[in-house]
Structure formats: C-alpha cells, structure tokens
Amino acid sequence: MKVLKNFFYNMIYQVLLIVLPLATMPYVSRVLGPDGLGKYSYTNSIMSYFVLIGSLGISLYGSRQIAYVQDSKESRSRVFWDVTILKIVTTTISILLLAFFLKIYNEYTSLIIAQSLTLVAIMFDVSWYFIGIEDFKKTITRNVVVKLISLLLIFSLVHTKSDLIIYILIITGSTLIGNFILIPFLKGQIYFVSINKIHFFKHVMPILLLFIPQLATQIYLVVNKTMLGQMDSIKAVGFFSSSDTLVRLALTIVSSISAVLMPRIASLVAKGDKKGVKDYMDKSFEFINFLSFPLVLGLIAISSKFIPLFLGKGFSVVSNLIILESPIIILISWSIAITNQYLIPSGLNREYIMSTFSGAISNILLNLFFIPNYGVYGAIIATLISEMIVLIYLLFGIKNKLNIKKMLFSNVYKYLLSSISMFIIIIVIDTLLPETISSVIFEIVFGVLVYIIALFFVKADILLKWKHFFD
User: Taking the CB of residue 341, how many other CB atoms lie within 10 A of it?
Assistant: First the structure.
C-alpha cells in the first residue's frame, strides 16, 4: 500500500514540475504566440545542455545510493554530503561554461540568462534524498504553494509578447524557490559530517557511468527542438514543444510508478531478493499498461477538438502532431520501467548506456533526413522510431534475466480492449457535441467511466485487488 501512496505523491510532484507551463498554455500561447513559445523552447533546449553538465546524473545516482543505505542515518548522512558537495562543484563548472558560451553566442542572450536560474536551482535540489528514502510526501507539501503563486504571477505580469523574459523568470524562479523550500525538511533526517569524512571523489566514476546514458537521453529529448530551430523555423519549435509537453504530461503520470519503485527495488537488490525484484517488475508493467493504453487512445480521440480550444486556432496543427506522437507514452513508459526499475538498481550500466546511445544516434540521423523533408512532422517521426529502437535494444538486453512475455503482455488484452471500447465511444460522442471546453471535459469523464466499467467486465486484477497490488 505504501508503494501506491508514494506513486500518487510522486505523480503529483512530477506533474507539478510541468503543470505551470501546461496550466498557462491556453493563455500564454495566445499572448506570446507560436514565435514567442518557439523562442522559449529554443533557448530552453540550449540551456538543457548546461543543466545536463550541472546535474551530471547526480540526482538519480544519489537516490539509488540513499536507497541502498536508507536504514542507517550515519550512512545516509555521508552519502548526502558527498553527493551535495559534488553537485555544487558540477553546477559551478556549468555556470562558468555558460558564461564562456555567452561571450561567443550573441543570439537570445537575455533569454538564456533568464533561463540560467535553473542551474542555481539544481545546486539546491534535495528532492533526490527524499526519493531515496521513499518519502515522497515532503517533496510536494510546500511546492504546491510556490506553483500556485507562480501561476498567479504569470496571469498578473505576462500580457504582451514583450513579456517573454518575465515569463521565463517566473518559471525558473519558481523552480529555485521550490528547491529552497524543501531544504528545511532535512532536519532530523541527516547530520553534519566532518570534512575529513567527506570523499565525494569516489562517486565521480559511478556517476559518470550513469551520466553517459543520461547525456544520450537528453540529446534526443532536446535535439529535436534545436535542430528544428536551425533547419526549419522557430514557429515549428513552438508547435513541436506544445505537442511534446502535452504528451509528456500524460507520460509523467504513467512513469511516476518507476520513480517510486526504483528505491524499493534497489533495496531488494541490496538484500539479494531476486524473486521480489521480478514480482515487482511484473506488477509494475501491468500497472503501466493499465494507465498507458487509455491515455494514448484518449489523447488521440479528443485532440482535434481539444487543441484549438486549449491553445488557440493558430495551433491547430498540434492536433495532428499529438495523434502521431502519443504512442511514445507506451514505448517510453516501458523503457523507463526497464532502466529505472531494473538496470540502474541492478548496476547493469552497459545495457543502460548502449540503449540510450542507440536512441540518441538514431534520433540525430533520422532528424537529418526527416526534418528537411517533413518539417515538424519529421521530428515527431524521428522521435517515434528512435524510441522503438531504444525499447527493442532494452528487451534484447534483459531477455535472459526477466520473463519478457509475462512482464509486458500479462493481461494486456484486457487493457487494450477496454481502451478501444472507450476510444470508440468518445469518437461517437465527439461528433455529436459542440466544440466547447465543457464538451471536452464531458468526453474525458465519460471515457474514464467507460474504461473502468469495461475493466470490471474483463475482470482486471488491478481493479479487483488494487489495495494489495504492490504489497
């Protein structure tokens, strides 16, 4: 039951990290327009490379190491200070590299400087510690207030296209303040460690092993936007970013279970409980299928009516992009589950590294072909194919370690049939209702009810035994 509670806490936390731009998208897209959103996404993609250097995969590594020693306050304290000091060093280096970059790159300088507050925020991020001890509640209690204040600030201060820099400062500033607010929760959890007991250098090589695949992952997360900006147009970046944001919000809801189970499985790995690891993997994949199939078909069903209402008529092309991109919810959810729940806790770095590099390299090569020929649609196609390549590589990598057939496809027909039933009914209702927000809300609520009823008809275990599903 604790796992399910942590899943909902983490899902809320992860959604909060992107809910600010999402909640304001209908307003901001109309105020800033595709060009303004394109500039935001383009400069954010540039900043992402410096964020990657600053974070260096330290948070993921830190969560795993804390999970290994979560029962010992002394060991937790040593790991915390080692990781924290290392993060201060890497973010300082990244800030210096950014300063050098700005001396030779003169385009969108003020916007990039505003984006750079994210680097300072990374320095004070301690959420990885609470993830490691499986305490997800603390990471959201005070952040909610900060996000709500940010929401109000956007509506109060962002009124014209010239307010783009104010919008960026609100986004980055809220992240910084949110990280500051989490720090007081460390009281009683750890204690100060004498300087001679801090040995952060010993963590450098293990972190680099995790950083390499995260580098590759980040490349094919942001390279689409960078290459679109260079090979097509800033407006195309705005369209791609809008579709990607909405699809990845749905993905966040599904993948939150992987973040929750990572410390739990890492603890089981440390204890040598192979049966427990396999059992959690099987259950987590059923849970992922339970959420991902209806989300994909639901997004496809409502996108044509929802997007023009949500973003404005200037973004109608995003409806088609979402229909094309939404299957990555299933592909990436499966990939994240394999990497975060099994490869990383088990220390199988080679498989992790090679899978992400295969995705990054294929994404760049595919972009070089598809973007010049198909523009923003090409970037979506490249993303889909590269995610398929990553998943296929991962499945080959674990085929002798886990029962893939049971793990991926156990009861999958129940969720697929229920999702298709929901999809058909939403499509029929969509043709009968007017193009209004209330119609979209009704379609979503009615679709959820149809899906749940269909699951009861097919007797899905996840509904009938949900209280004990992750015991």
Answer: 24
What pLDDT is stored for residue 421 in this prediction? 94
pLDDT of residue 129: 85
What pLDDT, on a 0 to 100 scale, did the predictor assign at position 61? 79
Is 88 in contact with 22 (CB distance < 8 Å)?
no
Which residues have a Cβ under 8 Å from the Cβ of 179 and sit 6 or more positions away?
A: 121, 124, 125, 126, 127
Cα dihedral: 186, 188, 193, 199 (round 10): -50
CA angle 375, 376, 380 (to 5 degrees): 120
Q: Which of 308, 293, 335, 294 is nearest to 450 (CA)?
A: 294
Ordered by start, the domain boundaries in the chain are 2-190+200-468
To the question of pTM greater than 0.90 for the whole model, the response is no
Residue stretches of the chain with pLDDT short of 50: none
Residue count of the chain, please give it: 471
Nearest to 165 by CA among 102, 108, 94: 108
One-letter identity of residue 45: S
Query: What's the pLDDT at 133?
Result: 78
